[in-house]
Amino acid sequence: MERSKDKFTIGRDRGCDIAIADETVSTWHAELSFLGDGKLLLTDCKSRNGTYRVLTDGSEVPLRQELVSPLDRIRFGNVSIGMRELLESLRMKYPQLGQPVGNAAAPRPPPAAGHRELERCECGRVKVVGSPCPGCGA
Length: 138
Description:
Elements: E1 7-11, E2 18-19, E3 30-34, E4 40-44, E5 51-54, E6 60-62, E7 65-68, E8 73-76, E9 79-82, H1 83-93, E10 118-120, E11 126-128
Parallel strand pairs: 1-2
Antiparallel strand pairs: 1-3, 3-4, 4-7, 5-6, 5-8, 8-9, 10-11
């Protein structure tokens, strides 16, 4: 089956592209969009229990509609999962995601940073702590 869309659903409904069998996850909880240049946009679909980005210190930030990275950890209701695992699930279900989808390229994880600590810049890109952001230069 040829997949031409660049937006994928996440929720408890079996018809979602990524189904999460947990009562705290809404039927149609969120959408993941593949944008140009490998960017990922995650949108909460007015879910009952919310969508949150889990920060490295364990605190959480509500997520309504934001750029996310394969390095992020996201909580849907009470279920916490890494973006990398979500992307891998989509690639297993839709193998053509390894190829360009529509006008968007499949996201690629940032290059390995060895043992350097990474952080998220205000523009949404991931950068090495103490180094300028490759996206905005900050």
